[in-house]
Amino acid sequence: MNNKIFRKLFFLILLFSIVSCNNVKLEKPNIILILADDLGWSDLSFMGSTYYETPNIDKLSKSGMTFYNGYASSSNCAPSRATLFTGKYNTEHGIYSVKNPILGYGSERGNIKTRKIIPIKTKSNLDLDFFTIPEMLKKVGYKNGHFGKWHLGSVGFYPENSGFDLNIGGNEYGGPGGYFSPYIHPGIDNGPKGEYLTDRIGDEVVNFIENNRYSNFFAFVSFFSVHTPIQSKEDYIKKYSNKVSNEFHNRADYAAMIQSLDENIGKILDKINTLNLSKNTLIIFTSDNGGIRSISNQYPLRAGKGSYYEGGIKVPLIFSWEGRIEAGTKSYERVSNIDFYPTIKEIVGFNDNLDLDGENLNPVFNGKNLNKREIYFHFPVYLEPYNVHKDNGKDPLFRTRPGSVVIKNNWKLHHYFEDNVFELYNLSDDISESTNLADINDDKKTELLHNLDNWRNKKNAPIPDKLNPFYNQKYVDSLLFLINNNLISGKVNANEAR
Is 446 part of a structural domain of the chain? Predict the structure, then answer.
């Protein structure tokens, strides 16, 4: 064989090897999981808002499957994120609420005189014994990047301790402190003066995609936006100040934050398209919990972040994967971010048996219905109000009180522990949860309570039952009198919307 023929043969073998390697790579998609912070169910134009503008997220919705009954697993950030990463209910990981030992809040939120029982203690660190989504993906060859908010532990429990190769901005801090450089957040290096944090995170993600274009990558894009403080670009604020609003969506600075969020999601989508990675990239978009009602009313949903009414837990949710998930499809299955782990596990072909609590959503992508299932929420702690006049939560003193919730088909049961109180709603007829049917539909209440009790027993769910000796009914009555007569200011939560 002469050298010319040998060189041609060598080139063909090399080309075949490259194509073969690429084909192996195509068996597993890149994964981009975009998690907005405190973005409400109706805070997008494709979800019906005529005030907020989200053309890029709208485009993402049209490219894949939109879930109109998507839920966060908890109504505030830390427990929702812990469940997302572990595929386990919060009864397993023990993170029930945001805990900050420096500022002194955790399970015992709100005035001690207004809490009838002593809540269960919450953890703040995600135990390293949990085998997280990024750790699973690393086992099958993924390069993992974390961008933005973590809020699942202090030093020793950062993203790099739970499977991420790159961590930008992830630590124990739940909010950014401010959105313009120089940054207050200690996990983010300063950029040019006046740089906007949402833009910075978008740029970091684009660089990560570029640098890992030839290997499988997982990008967890955890924007701080639209978490407080509500800060945005002045020219965007001016734009929305001159736009027609309505009684539900009307804050120009919040609308401006949403525009920046959308632009940076568009930046990521454009990069995927430019690199011809669309057919090999699964994109998931959602929010960690519901929106803050006094900032953006989620009508027709009741309440907002921190509540277990629909406004606190129902969130936007999109799955998009060109060629694998039919474009422009809609699903009304009731699903949760607890379902992400088993869904991703099947997609990447991870064969080890894992004890996960969620459901695999791949059958839904193929037009099938899930088997009958229930979604559970357990919140054995207190969460004080954000705005006593606007929250529309359990009562003016708390966005929620200790309790559990089960959703089964179109029925939803709330069980509060203080006085063994029940609320039952038919969500198909009453999405606003305005008419409590617990006293007139005892059969359905009994059925759902049976499901809830079985689940709590199976999960060994802690239920608070010790009375708080500092509870003062006279103090509660006087406080409610002041609130009901508008003699007290609306916003009483000094820690913003944590």
Answer: no
Any idea what the CATH number is for the domain that residue 148 is in? 3.40.720.10
Q: In this structure, what token pair is assigned to residue 235?
A: 């020219």
Going by DSSP bridges, is the β-strand pair 335-336/374-379 parallel, antiparallel, or unpaired? unpaired
- Distance (Å, rounded) from C-alpha 249 to C-alpha 298? 9
Domain-located, residue 411 = no
Assess whether the previous peptide bond of 226 is cis (omega < 30° from 0): yes
Helix axes 340-348, 77-86, angle to 10 degrees: 30
Closest CA to 89 of 350, 309, 380, 465: 380
Tell me if 318 is assigned to some domain. Answer: yes
State the pTM of this model. Answer: 0.93
Give the residue numbers spanning the domain of 111.
21-369
Name which of 267, 136, 277 is nearest 214 in CA terms. Answer: 277
User: Tokens in use for 295?
Assistant: 């900032």
Closest CA to 418 of 4, 106, 119: 119
Q: What is the pLDDT of residues 307-336, one digit of tens each?
A: 999 999 999 999 999 999 999 999 999 999
DSSP summary character for residue 121: P
The token duo for 28 is 């597993």
* 99: confidence class by pLDDT, cuts 50, 70, 90: confident
Cα-Cα-Cα-Cα dihedral sign, residues 223, 228, 234, 235? positive
Specify the number of domains making up the chain. Answer: 1
Tell the burial category of 101 from Cβ atoms under 10 Å away from its Cβ (0-12, 13-18, 19+): exposed
DSSP-derived pairing of the beta strands 166-168 and 374-379: unpaired
Is residue 172 within 8 Å of 124, Cβ to Cβ?
yes
Mean pLDDT confidence for 179-203: 96
Identity of residue 266: G
> Is 11 part of any domain?
no
Please check whether residue 60 is in contact with residue 269, taking contact to mean a CB–CB distance below 8 angstroms.
yes
Strand partners for 66: 318, 330
What pLDDT is stored for residue 120 in this prediction? 96
User: Residue 490: what pLDDT?
Assistant: 77
Percentage of the chain beyond pLDDT 70 is 92
State whether residue 60 is helix, strand or coil: helix
Question: Do residues 172 and 153 make contact, with C-beta atoms less than 8 angstroms apart?
Answer: yes
Pairing of the two strands 335-336 and 329-331: unpaired
Weakest-pLDDT range from 12-26, 222-236, 259-273, 280-294: 12-26
- Residue 14 confidence (pLDDT): 47
Q: Nearest to residue 221, comparing CAs of 182, 169, 273?
A: 169
Tally Cβ neighbours within 10 Å of residue 263: 18
Between CA 478 and CA 473 the distance in angstroms is 9
Check if the beta carbon of residue 377 is closer than 8 Å to that of residue 284: no
Amino acid identity of residue 304, one-letter, is G
